[in-house]
């Protein structure tokens, strides 16, 4: 046997896999292989999920209530012991070194958790203390965070007096106090009004973009997943249905839709001609009547809009409206499960604390 | 070191919560103070009946030790409800995601409970002094009494904590622990000596752990009553209860934590 073929074998079977493994350890902040979680009552909450999250990624789980999203987060944040599977977080084995993992992660649970008897500042300081921070460095960090989440004005009021949106922001800030490398957010905007939701989205984008924090988020909202996540796993009943970037996922659905109406379209002759014109344009796969007028399916609608307008112009037909719609993440869920994702609002319970005194939420 | 600091931070948190909800202190002090101010007056003539109560001892002097222990009970009850609160709001889980020492979560709670019982005991002793009570063994005796009551409170905290962790319901904690406390109090030597009880109650009261604790406090407060054996017996009985109740708490807490 020649020496270089021996080398080839050694390289292929030993060195190359080791190098690849090394690369993946370096770049993946979360690795999950075949995670299974079965509850005491036999409920199979997670049924063999595997994924990788790269460092600096904005990663998300999209799925309806009961899909296994929260369960997965509880396992990854060391709150719940997994039934089986292999998980590493920030390079540490979940079972062997949970304490190391806890130092590097921040987590926000689905329910907003703040101590209503403590002020906003005290909540953050306590959280810092639990993360083994103290002294001037902690004071400084708390100030910084209060500014970030715009709670400086109410920092010394008890959190029980905060509005829902303010509590959520305080909760988010307390997950950030020790500058975690990795942030877990379980449905961070469920139950919030659109304005508060938009504000949380801005913070999260900023944290990921400016501070390089890896974010793992779960959500029931397609809009949220679409806007924030660069890597998305669509989950239902403890299993992964589809994964990819939101763009890739939508491309899997296939066609965009173009809905248009023409002046005089109520006359059969005009409509028939319009449909014929549309069918003649390359890229259009199907033309149907719809309540908006005529709907055409095309793989890449934005590129053929000009062709459509030109073709109608040549035939002297006037368009009264034209609408493009990209496929939504909901279409993917629909395709795979035959169901629509319907977000359910949480029953927001009042936070802990005084049970006997009357309280009014503070105004933002 | 971590354990110490974490315990200190959580101790401070518990105290802040308590100070900001003074109504809770009011609730646990209300009954003992009613007993102290009204009961002792109501029963003052009975204590003079020959043969039932120790001679020359006022009912106030006799019953104040029992009232101190009753105060230990009623504040220990609220210990369990506060852990139920942390469990149900998710605050406990929020702590568990951090590297905080797990033992500190329980220790912070228990030290705050002990501190609280002690402050309440001081309030009761001051009030009792104002209406004529005194501790025969002096300042050292008072310190020993405070320690016994606090230790007793801790053992009872264990019961309410274990119930809270097991049932996760504040109502159940109040229900069961509250249900336990009055019969135990009445069937002890807290308010009436054994000689004044029917025979069956005498036998219950002589094995009732509260009787042991109250006898020790009485040994320290009544003149010429001191017996080191009684005090040691009380400490032994309370320690035995604490091992069982705090052991159960620790076991249930471990289950919640992992």
- Count all strands of chain B and give the number: 0
* Low-pLDDT windows of residues of chain B: none
Order of helices and strands of chain A: HEEEHEEHEHHHEHEHEEHEHEEHEH
Residues in β-strands, percent of chain A: 15-25%
Quickly give the structural class of chain A: alpha/beta
Number of strands of chain A: 14
What would the principal axes of the Cα set say about the shape of chain A? globular
Identify the strand order in the major beta sheet of chain A. 6-7-8-3-9-10
Largest sheet of chain A: 6 strands, mixed
Helix content of chain B: over 70%
Through-space gap between termini of chain A = 78 Å
- Which whole number gives the mean pLDDT of chain A? 84
Question: Which percent bin holds the helix content of chain A?
Answer: 40-55%
C-alpha-based Rg of chain A, rounded: 26 Å
Strand content of chain B: under 5%
Oligomer description = heterodimer
Question: What do you see in this structure?
Answer:
The complex is a heterodimer of chains A (364) and B (258). In chain A, strands 6-7-8-3-9-10 form a six-stranded mixed β-sheet, sandwiched between helices. Chain A has helices spanning 3-27, 69-76, 98-104, 120-130, 135-148, 164-176, 194-211, 222-228, 246-253, 268-279, 301-314, 329-337; strands spanning 28-38, 44-54, 58-62, 84-89, 92-93, 105-108, 182-186, 214-219, 231-236, 239-244, 256-262, 284-290, 293-298, 319-325. The termini of chain A are far apart. Chain A is globular. Chain A has twelve helices and 14 strands. The relative contact order of chain A is 0.13. Residues 345-364 of chain A have low confidence and may be disordered. Chain A is α/β, with parallel strands linked by helices and 364 residues long. With 258 residues, chain B is mainly α. In chain B, 79% of the residues lie in helices and 0% in strands. Chain B is built from ten helices and no strands. Chain B has helices at residues 2-20, 22-42, 59-89, 91-96, 102-130, 138-167, 170-186, 199-207, 209-221, 228-257. In chain B, helix 2 (22-42) packs parallel to helix 5 and helix 6 (138-167) runs antiparallel to helix 9. Chain B is elongated and about 65 Å long. The interface between A and B is medium-sized, with 33 and 24 residues.
